[in-house]
């Protein structure tokens, strides 16, 4: 019989994750997943959810110090591995494992996880916890393709995800994915539109701010890029632009991806922003 305390904690965990893509809602959700695991340490839904919140931190290392980010990766990897031992067909756990792999730069393994998730029973995926469905596997699979050197596949995947789940709470992240890929492909105006759309839903989303700054510089809008740099430094004073560069270069060794992304950093250094 299900523990009503566990079910309540899982329901409460889903609420903050429908809000803005920020550190605070992620931490709140993580506390509820941990509360569920305190009652049932081998609950696959709670383990998968905990791994998902850890992945959010790993994908946004400007939210915390480096030690906390590394600990989140280890915890998330362990939690999702246990979840998959308990439920090998859990699509939510499978694509969460893929997200962790992608954030760590293992993009080939991530691609395999996303493709596997997309073949699994959607109802098994839906049972993970409220509000998350197969659209996320499409979105993250498309995003990961950019790191594999196939950015042209990203936006079609994002469009599929939005058709499956048009929820406004998803548009911040998914619009960034599309804008990032369009920027890699040199479609700068399309990228600017998508990155602005992302920031309309969350003005403090660091990755969207960073790559919008690069896009603005590529189109000669230096003043607007300066403003974006100021916003980044205001919201994340302890995270340097060099750290952004290291993060995005470490995401993939693909020669195609490297050739696409490196000129964006060269644009940023024209601002004189060496730190």
What does it look like?
The protein has 275 residues and is mostly helical. The protein has 15 helices and no strands. Mean pLDDT is 89; it is low at 125-131.
Low-confidence stretches: 125-131
> What form results from the Cα inertia axes?
globular
Strand count, sense and closure of the main sheet? none
- How many domains? The number is 2
| Radius of gyration over C-alpha positions, nearest whole angstrom | 18 Å
Mean pLDDT: 89
The overall strand count is 0
N- to C-terminal distance: 55 Å
Task: Please state the second-level CATH architecture of the largest domain.
Answer: Alpha Horseshoe
Fourth-level CATH superfamily of the largest domain: Tetratricopeptide repeat domain
% residues in beta strands: under 5%
> How much helix is in the residues?
over 70%
How many H/I helices? 15
SS class: mainly alpha
Elements, N to C (H/E): HHHHHHHHHHHHHHH
According to CATH, what is the topology of the largest domain? Serine Threonine Protein Phosphatase 5, Tetratricopeptide repeat
Task: Quickly name the level 1 CATH class of the largest domain.
Answer: Mainly Alpha
